[in-house]
Amino acid sequence: MVVQAHFNARNGAEALVLLKQGMPSSDAIAYLMAKDPHRAYRQMAAIDRRGEVTSYTGPLCNAWAGGLVSEYCAAQGNTLTDCSVVRGMVDTFQAERGPLAHRLVRALSAGEQQGGDLRGRQSASLLVVSPSPEVPFDVFSHTTIDLRGDDHPQPLQELKRLLDLHDLLWQPTAEADRLPFDRDTVRRLQLALSRLGHYSGNSDGQYNEDTRRALRQITYLYNLRRRMENEWIDQKILEYLEQRGSNTDT
User: Fold this and answer.
1) Are residues 119 and 35 in the same domain?
2) Please, is 14 exposed, middle or buried when counting C-beta atoms within 10 Å of its C-beta (0-12, 13-18, 19+)?
3) Shared-domain flag, residues 49 and 146
4) What residue numbers bound the domain in which 161 lies?
5) Both 137 and 185 in a single domain?
6) Which residue in 34, 102, 229, 242 is a FRET match for 204, CA 20 to 30 A apart?
7) Per DSSP, what are the bridge partners of residue 128?
8) Where does residue 131 rank: exposed (0-12), middle (13-18), buried (19+ CB within 10 A)?
9) Rounded Cα gap, residues 165 and 170, in angstroms
């Protein structure tokens, strides 16, 4: 469910109620627009529980304005360069694979590459919500992602950085990212820990107790303990520590 252009947030809230009650997306949007005196300035899109996708753009929205729908997705915009922006977003979303959040960010990037907003770039946001089957331990215990980069010179790059950080903090380690504690890996780890001020021993590639202690301390300090194991080191953690360590050298 999305509302934009000269949007009325109440339309979005009411649409969600109607969709939860089982109303088709086309009927929900038609009902809301029929009773909205400013419908000519509105944009709405919705996907219902049956997968029906509906998009509406009022005739007085700022040009270029319009939307495009496809299977389980809708792209809309106003004050865009032209229709290729929404086409690029839909085509990219349909072609991409992987987690929904990353598909959405790549679709936004495709829209920007096609010209994006006529006024330039200023902000980007991402909201992914799914119901939790049980009482969550914390806000990150189920797949809710709520990220935004406001008033930023490169908002989509900032959004991608935040999403990568979210994954680092809360996603489990992929099998391909499990690095053995061999000499080269441990030496990289020791150098990164040393640059961050958490290790003062030799960077000799020996996974000794001082290295274990420093790694354990820093994973707790940076909230990386979900990716902490005794049998391997997470490649993304290692790259993250190396990046932070390199920033301290500049």
Assistant:
1) yes
2) middle
3) yes
4) 2-170
5) no
6) 229
7) 145
8) exposed
9) 9
